[in-house]
Specification:
Length: 596
């Protein structure tokens, strides 16, 4: 039987279902006191995906690139040093003090044990210093949450890419620019949801297509412009008349294609081979509920970004995966891990551990530890115990956490069973992915008790404003490499605008090679423009807009007969398209009739 509870953070009601209680019982944890959305936001506040800073290493004393701001609490070591035997995490071990909350003691330990400056595998990075959450890169610049790339710039969630610039969620692709969600494709520009295609401009929802411009919802088509077929010769001539090297042309075309796209139906959810699943971007999975961006997973719920399979038996797991099972309320945990609860950044064969950060390497039975990397077991607050003493002490700590819980700045109570409080995060709200998925203004964030960072004052001088840049790439001289360009947003947005940016030599070479104009926004603002094409985490209940022969707003005329014929489709569904959006939304059956 469902049970309705009130979230202690947002005070909204949320439902705990019978299957949830079974999972909590299996994991030996109490039911949550935060609702699913507040739990997700809380984890997201611990994930800085794309901001880099200069911070002093506590090991070498040198200023190094770090994902941690200069004024944040973590002591940092160079990543190569952190993973080495140059230091021992057991040296920071301490006894449990039952006169104060356990999480308070954990936070004290967290501030003492060094953190890796960046989450990278340095030995796999070649000429790719300005990157984070990354491995196996060559000649890459400002790419994040990425792996196995070469000659990529300004991207997030790029895997197996070559010459991918300004990309978000681009996989197994080459020569890609300003795209979101492109898979196994080449020479794709200003497009979204493109798979197994090549030579695509300004298009959306294409599969197995080639040589298309301004198209939507096509399958296996070639030489189409705004969904109209052309001969190969006609298409080439028409394409040559489009001045894609002009910034004014690009901006005009973006507006035109958006209006054109809105004349066609969208599928209610972008899932595929998702059996008994609910959520968005779920592929080849079974029993993935209320989850987002999931691949090859089974029996997961309230989870996000588990794109490195396989994953099974997980609730409230965010990011990574790869051989993880029985995970609860954890962030960036994976690579053959098992039975983890309330953990962050734990990997490589770690198991049976709780309230632990930055640990792995075959370690097990850790409670409240930081930086355990060498197979240590039966440790509490980085102090090692016998197996028997460990188990007795863990039971005592759990009772203590319930009898003397931690209270955060907003008055929320953290007994045993909750993830870390937001104030334990070394990042401010607007530096994390929480700002991308749950955007707030500075005033809203501060009112909720979250921290915020205003843009730093820089000592550079803008030498050219965005409006004064040459319109056409053919007009751009090499001297642009010496200019400091003012971002068109002028830090008046809420997108971590850097106010100014520069063009680097390999970037200019890419624009010239692909005949693309210079950008007018800084890399951060460009990223946030792509984020707008990503469907939100939230779902709404809606009815299919297929009215028989056309959409119920009269905009789209169906191309074929549907099984409900000339009457309105009766299907209702969940969708990430809210009712106030302009897009037409069809159920899966009606949508597939129109595109397959």
């Amino acid at each position: 039987m469902n049970e309705i509870r009130k979230c202690q953070n947002c005070h909204n009601d949320f439902t705990i279902e019978p299957e949830d209680f079974k999972f909590y019982e299996k994991m030996q944890v109490p039911p949550p006191t935060f609702c699913p959305e507040c739990r997700t936001r809380r984890r997201f506040m611990f994930r800085n995906e794309k901001s880099l800073f200069i911070k002093k290493s506590s090991f070498s004393g040198q200023d190094i690139f770090s994902m941690y701001p200069k004024d944040s609490y973590p002591k940092i070591y160079e990543s190569k040093i952190w993973y080495s035997d140059e230091w021992n995490p057991l040296d920071y071990g301490r006894d449990v003090d039952f006169s104060k909350p356990f999480l308070e003691q954990f936070f004290e330990l967290l501030k003492e044990v060094p953190h890796p400056a960046r989450s990278v595998s340095e030995e796999t990075l070649v000429n790719s210093d300005y990157c984070n959450n990354a491995n196996h890169l060559k000649n890459c610049y400002l790419v994040f949450n990425t792996a196995h790339d070469e000659d990529c710039m300004y991207g997030n969630d790029i895997y197996d890419g070559r010459d991918v610039v300004d990309g978000l969620s681009v996989k197994n692709s080459e020569l890609s620019y300003d795209n979101f969600w492109v898979m196994r494709s080449n020479r794709v520009f200003f497009s979204h949801y493109i798979e197994d295609s090549h030579d695509i401009y300004f298009s959306k929802n294409l599969r197995a297509c080639s040589n298309c411009f301004g198209c939507v919802n096509l399958r296996g088509k070639s030489y189409h412009i705004f969904n109209e077929p052309y001969s190969k010769e006609e298409y080439i001539a028409k394409l040559e008349s489009f001045d894609v090297g002009s910034y004014k042309f690009i901006e005009k075309t973006k507006k035109k294609v958006q209006e054109f796209w809105n004349n066609f139906p969208n599928q209610n959810l972008l899932n595929r081979n998702a059996i008994n699943c609910s959520g968005e971007y779920i592929y080849n999975s079974k029993n993935a509920k209320n989850s987002y961006y999931i691949r090859e997973a089974e029996n997961v719920k309230y989870s996000q970004f588990l794109i490195t399979p396989p994953v099974s038996e997980a609730y409230d797991q965010t990011l990574f995966g790869e051989g993880s099972s029985f995970i609860y309320e954890s962030l960036v945990c994976g690579l053959n891990v098992n039975d983890l609860k309330f953990c962050r950044e734990c990997w490589s064969g770690m198991n049976e551990s709780q309230y632990t950060m930055y640990s792995g390497g075959g370690s097990s039975n850790l409670f409240g530890c930081v930086g355990m990397r060498g197979g240590q077991s039966y440790c509490i607050l980085n102090k090692q115990y016998s197996k028997e003493d460990y188990k007795q002490l863990v039971s005592k700590i759990v009772r203590h956490m319930n009898e003397m819980p931690y209270q955060d700045k907003q008055g929320n109570i953290y007994k045993y069973g909750e993830f870390f409080p937001p104030e334990f995060s070394p990042f401010v709200y607007n530096e994390t992915i929480a700002q991308e998925y749950f955007p707030l203004t500075k005033e809203e964030a501060l009112k909720l008790g979250y921290s915020w960072r205003d843009p730093e004052e820089r000592d550079y001088k803008i030498t050219v404003e965005a409006d004064d840049l040459p319109d056409h790439i053919a007009q751009v001289k090499d001297s642009i490499l010496n200019e400091v360009i003012g971002c068109a947003h002028e830090q008046k947005c809420n997108e971590q605008c850097t106010k100014a940016f520069r063009i680097i030599d390999k970037e200019l070479a890419f624009y010239r090679k692909m005949n693309l104009p210079l950008p007018r926004l800084c890399p951060n603002c460009r990223h946030y423009q792509r984020v707008k094409f990503r469907n939100p985490l939230k779902l709404w209940q809606r009815k299919c807009q297929c009215a028989g022969e056309k959409s119920d707003n009269g905009v789209y005329i169906n191309a074929t007969k549907h099984k409900h014929e000339d009457v309105h489709c009766l299907n209702e569904f969940e969708t990430s398209y809210s009712t106030d959006r302009a897009e037409i939304v069809y159920c899966e059956g009606c949508y597939l009739k129109e595109v397959v």
